[in-house]
């Protein structure tokens, strides 16, 4: 619905990205290319910089050095001759409507119904008429299996249902790229499956996705590329069969031994 | 709910025994300490009421006479007007100041901080007198372009009269307090909400109005109503400007007829009435902004009364409780059959045993 396999959209380039919080360097020179329609799964120990990488891609965090581009457009900056000009917040917000973000803790708006959560961004950020957005939002809720929960508020839903609404909300602006920040880590074990099923469905539909997760089984099944990050650097990347089953690096091996 | 961890497996209650248990009367536990405390408080209460009734000095007949006296009513109206105007100015400007303090511009932050510092530091009564004497500082005020030509000149005395000085003083000082309340509400909203709104690309003004403020209202409302109640009573300070609000009016009357206590009582009763109205408004406002924060909203007093009546009527007739009454409400008020409610009654809504 949002991106068919023919639309070759959603090329993500991360180049030489550095990011520090105070004196702590969280990302120290990350290079990553995600081709349109591909699913990239990022794994690594906690504190390794996985989440920061995602937050840098949609400019929730500013980079200290390096750049991020989606389909050739720099995120957060505009090039004028040989200077990079920082974009105004308004323009950054517009860029973000092309990048869907799903949070670990859902972050649904608790005072709005599921439907209002999904409708909000297309109407207020993209200026589309409510009459056009609402049927689309209902269809999205239907697609994540919650067509009957349109009028429920987040607190009336289970964690798994909330995360599915959050995914529908992220899809509503028709993003080119979807970013998932540990989408199942805050869920009870028996609810993980329903959320992964929705993500798998999207992955097969050819949406460009970057997923930070600890679900190694999910990575094995759906990832085109698995990226292992440790201490702010990409240690190794490649197809799942290579990275997960025959890791070249000691650190990757040690990490996989712990989580598998 | 079963208890599988019990050391000794307990034998199930036989079916015949269950029905018998269901019919038994439930005796509540005794609380002698609570009874003694209740008795003490009841005696004290009786003493207060009896003194209110028997002591002629209270002058209840005069209270009754003046309660709806035309000039008192116009004083009440004066108090309401001051409170509403000052609350609108206070919370309008207060919200602006709160957003300024949270903005990323150092100048806006500092100006807001300075404003709050000054207006919280200077006593209200002093501020009121200053505003009333504005004409001494600036005999005329000019509307025009800053540092440029002016279009129209006003006499300050005409523009800022008693009412003007009163709402300026009350409103501007209220803004300093409201700003902090609104700011506390905004920073109390989960950071994830700001992030989610930003990640969706929602414009910044809309983020505040649609996402953040409605959630902040949950903490803003109780403190704000507190503030407005304070403001309502604070309007009595305006008597220094000889503006005809309730407290000044009462003073004028007892200055003439010397019935000080009964007239103070009249004012007290009116302040009670107005505060009661605000308290009721607070309940419904809080309930409105609790949407989303609670799974089910607390029942309103009207709902509670209706359900109690429906349950009582159904019991009298021995009929089942109507479906419009929530299940929890009917069963919480039962006096028999608590013991085996889960296993043996066909539905929790069934009211057994009383008839």
From TrEMBL, chain A:
Keywords: ATP-binding, Nucleotide-binding, Transport. Residues 12-256 form the ABC transporter domain. InterPro entries: AAA+_ATPase, ABC_ATPase_HisP-typ, ABC_transporter-like_ATP-bd, ABC_transporter-like_CS, MetN_ABC_transporter-like, P-loop_NTPase. PROSITE patterns: ABC_TRANSPORTER_1, ABC_TRANSPORTER_2. One of its GO terms (molecular function) is ATP binding. Pfam families: ABC_tran (PF00005). Belongs to the ABC transporter superfamily. PANTHER family: AMINO ACID IMPORT ATP-BINDING PROTEIN, PHOSPHONATES IMPORT ATP-BINDING PROTEIN PHNC. This is Amino acid ABC transporter ATP-binding protein. It comes from Cellulomonas edaphi. The lineage of its organism: Bacteria, Bacillati, Actinomycetota, Actinomycetes, Micrococcales.
From TrEMBL, chain B:
It is a multi-pass membrane protein. The chain crosses the membrane at residues 35-60, 80-100, 112-132, 236-254, 260-285. Residues 76-282 form the ABC transmembrane type-1 domain. It is found in: Cell membrane. It comes from the Bacteria. Keywords: Amino-acid transport, Cell membrane, Membrane, Transmembrane, Transmembrane helix, Transport. The keyword Cell membrane applies. Belongs to the binding-protein-dependent transport system permease family. NCBIfam families: HEQRo_perm_3TM (TIGR01726). PANTHER family: L-CYSTINE TRANSPORT SYSTEM PERMEASE PROTEIN TCYL, MEMBRANE COMPONENT OF AMINO ACID ABC TRANSPORTER. This is Amino acid ABC transporter permease. It comes from Cellulomonas edaphi.
């Amino acid at each position: 619905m949002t991106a068919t396999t023919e639309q070759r959209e959603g090329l993500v380039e991360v180049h030489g990205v550095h990011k520090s919080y105070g004196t702590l360097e969280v990302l120290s020179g990350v290079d990553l290319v995600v081709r349109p329609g591909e699913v990239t799964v990022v794994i690594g120990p906690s504190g390794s910089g996985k989440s920061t990488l995602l937050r840098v891609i949609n400019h929730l965090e500013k980079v200290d050095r390096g750049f991020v581009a989606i389909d050739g457009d720099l995120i957060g900056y505009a090039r004028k001759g040989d200077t990079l000009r920082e974009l105004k917040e308004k323009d950054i917000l517009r860029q973000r409507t092309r990048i869907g973000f799903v949070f670990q803790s859902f972050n649904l708006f608790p005072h709005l119904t599921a439907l209002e959560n999904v409708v909000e961004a297309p109407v207020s950020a993209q200026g589309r008429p409510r009459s056009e957005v609402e049927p689309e939002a209902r269809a999205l809720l239907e697609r994540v299996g919650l067509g009957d929960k349109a009028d429920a508020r987040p607190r009336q839903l289970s964690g798994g249902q909330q995360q599915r609404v959050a995914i529908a909300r992220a899809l509503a602006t028709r993003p080119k790229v979807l970013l998932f920040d540990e989408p199942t880590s805050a869920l009870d074990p028996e609810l993980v499956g329903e959320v992964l099923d929705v993500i798998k469905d999207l992955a097969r539909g050819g949406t460009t996705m970057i997923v930070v997760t600890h679900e190694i089984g999910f990575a094995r099944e759906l990832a085109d590329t698995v990226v292992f990050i440790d201490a702010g650097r990409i240690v190794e990347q490649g197809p799942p069969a290579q990275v997960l089953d025959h890791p070249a690096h000691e650190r990757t091996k040690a990490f996989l031994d712990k989580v598998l | 709910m079963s208890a599988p961890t019990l050391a000794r497996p307990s034998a199930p209650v036989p079916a015949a025994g269950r029905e018998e248990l269901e019919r038994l009367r439930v005796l509540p536990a005794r609380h002698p300490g609570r009874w003694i405390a209740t008795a003490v408080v009841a005696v004290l209460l009786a003493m207060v009421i009896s003194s209110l009734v028997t002591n002629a000095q209270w002058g209840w007949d005069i209270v009754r006479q003046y309660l709806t006296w035309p000039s008192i009513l116009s004083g009440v109206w004066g108090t309401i007007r001051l409170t509403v105007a000052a609350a609108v100015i206070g919370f309008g400007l207060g919200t602006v100041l709160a957003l300024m303090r949270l903005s990323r511009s150092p100048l806006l932050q500092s100006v807001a901080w300075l404003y709050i510092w000054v207006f919280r530091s200077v006593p209200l009564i002093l501020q009121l007198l200053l505003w009333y004497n504005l004409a001494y500082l600036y005999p005329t005020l000019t509307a025009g372009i800053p540092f440029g030509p002016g279009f129209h000149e006003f006499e300050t005395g005409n523009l800022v009269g008693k009412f003007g000085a009163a709402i300026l003083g009350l409103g501007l000082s209220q803004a300093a307090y409201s700003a902090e309340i609104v700011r506390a509400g905004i920073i109390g909203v989960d950071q994830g909400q700001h992030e989610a709104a930003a990640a969706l690309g929602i414009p910044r003004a809309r983020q505040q109005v649609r996402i953040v403020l409605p959630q902040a209202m949950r903490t803003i409302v109780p403190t704000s109503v507190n503030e407005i109640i304070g403001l309502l009573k604070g309007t009595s300070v305006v008597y220094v400007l000889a503006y005809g609000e309730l407290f000044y009016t009462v003073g004028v009357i007892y200055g003439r007829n010397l019935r000080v206590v009964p007239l103070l009582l009249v004012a007290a009763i009116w302040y009670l009435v107005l505060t009661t109205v605000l308290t009721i408004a607070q309940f419904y406002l809080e309930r409105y902004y609790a949407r989303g924060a609670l799974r089910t909203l607390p029942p309103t007093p009207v709902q509670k009364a209706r359900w109690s009546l429906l349950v009582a009527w159904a019991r009298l007739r021995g009929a089942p409780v109507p479906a419009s009454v929530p299940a929890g409400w009917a069963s919480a008020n039962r006096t028999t059959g608590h013991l085996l409610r889960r296993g043996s009654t066909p539905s929790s809504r069934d009211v057994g045993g009383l008839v």
